[in-house]
Specification:
By secondary structure, the protein is mainly α. Strand 10 and strand 11 form a beta hairpin. It has four domains: 99 residues, no CATH class; 111 residues, no CATH class; 99 residues, no CATH class; 57 residues. A three-stranded antiparallel sheet has the order 4-7-6. It has a two-stranded parallel sheet with strand order 1-5. The protein has a two-stranded antiparallel ribbon with strand order 2-3. It contains 17 helices and eleven strands. The N terminus is likely disordered.
Length: 411
């Protein structure tokens, strides 16, 4: 007989008032102030029925009798027990069907994790390597080695898994073991322990379902920075976050490099040279641009290199230094700052281009003024000296020379 006994405060959360008088399923018992794990026979009976082909809730309902409240449906009993066993890992629940886990299905999970290490993991690490070699080396030499060892140990445990006792008759299973408990208790506990450990190892290395539903976002970085040092941090999630982050860094670097080239080419194309020197002070733009280019194009094997800037040098504030100290959020913040200097109003490039535009306006106005002044000089060409003095032509010519110097000679 399969009984449904609702959870009470000892087991989970307090039940609703109408369930106060009902017993629990009996997963734990209080003994000397401690909770002792029990193995209720209904769990074993349920697992036995699922040991063949996957069965729906409807198919499972007919195998049992139910001691439950009048308003509790048998299908809800089956659902509750099935999902509980699925949570333990003993039952696979998919497409509203329940099937007992098998050594083969667990082995398939270990094989998928191993294949992921050989393929997707390596591909992701190769992407990281192009930006930050130390992290890539650590992933290969530390985390991958640990994962492979964990999978090997899980395989050894799996080799000792025995679910055959579920096919034995209850007369045999009810016999007392050396510990004084029925045989089915020790055998169930041993099997459940192995299944739990193998599943935990598998999903810590690679969880296919969680990995498929994962989408990287910079919003994940605060949690990653605070949690990634944990020994049990899932490797697949670590890789997914790092791959997304370093792809983001790579793409931002490419966009910034492209923007720097565009801005520099535009400015240099608009400022003519005289005797090999630009007649407008491009250094106010090109020097910071050169610094930004050096900063974002750090070598993957030495991102924390010091970058000279005039008589000083920048280290801890650079993208590469922040990357080498694993301050991922600050890396993106620094890249945002550089992007703002290149693209936002009121920042470096915007201010320079506005000044350049004003200078170009001055040049055009100077050319118009120079043409008019030449016409004026021609008009007074035959005038006597006193007339030229009275109209201050010499002073006008000096001032015009200064205007030409600013507009055409850069001085």
């Amino acid at each position: 007989m399969l009984k449904l006994r609702h959870a009470d405060a000892r087991h989970r959360h307090p039940p609703g008032p109408k369930y106060y008088e009902f017993e629990t399923l009996g997963l734990f018992v209080e003994q000397a102030g401690s909770k002792i794990v029990q193995v209720p026979r209904p769990l074993l009976a349920f697992a036995q029925r699922c040991s063949g082909l996957p069965l729906t809730r409807t198919a499972l309902e007919r195998f049992f009798l139910y001691a439950a409240p009048d308003d509790t449906k048998p299908r809800d009993v089956i659902q509750q027990l099935g999902l509980f066993l699925a949570y333990l890992g003993v039952i696979d629940a998919a497409a509203d069907k329940f099937a007992l886990v098998t050594a083969k299905s667990l082995k398939d999970g270990l094989d998928r994790a191993d294949d992921w290490l050989k393929r997707d993991f390596e591909q992701a690490v190769s992407e990281v390597d192009t930006v930050h070699r130390d992290i890539a080396d650590n992933l290969r030499d530390h985390f991958a080695k640990i994962a492979r060892q964990q999978l090997k140990e899980a395989q050894k445990k799996l080799d000792s898994l025995d679910l055959g006792f579920l096919k034995e008759k209850w007369e045999e299973l009810n016999k007392s073991g050396s510990d004084g408990n029925p045989l089915y208790v020790s055998r169930w506990n041993a099997a459940a322990q192995i299944v739990s450990e193998v599943r935990a190892t598998t999903f810590q290395v690679f969880d296919p379902e969680a990995n498929r539903g994962f989408t990287y976002s910079p919003d994940l970085l605060p949690d990653y920075e605070s949690q990634s040092s944990r020994d049990d941090y899932p490797l697949w999630r670590r890789i997914a976050i790092l791959r997304g982050f370093y792809r983001d860094v790579r793409d931002r670097r490419l966009n910034l490099e492209r923007r720097i080239q565009e801005v520099r080419a535009d400015a240099e194309g608009r400022v003519p040279a005289l005797n090999g020197e630009r007649i407008f002070p491009l250094q106010a733009l090109t020097l910071p641009l050169d610094f930004y280019r050096q900063e974002i194009n750090f070598p993957s094997d030495r991102p924390n290199r010091t970058i000279p800037m005039g008589s000083t040098a920048l280290g801890v504030q650079t993208v590469g230094f922040k990357l080498s100290t694993l301050k991922y959020q600050e890396v993106l913040q620094r890249l945002d700052q550089i992007s703002a200097e290149l693209n936002s109003p009121g920042k470096l490039v915007s201010i320079f281009l506005e000044s350049l535009k004003e200078w170009e306006t001055v040049r055009v106005d100077a050319q118009v003024l120079s043409s008019r002044f030449e016409t004026t000089l021609q008009f007074f060409a035959d005038a006597d000296t006193n007339t030229k003095i009275r109209f201050q032509l010499r002073e006008l010519e000096d001032e015009m020379s200064e205007v030409r110097g600013v507009a055409e000679l850069g001085s």
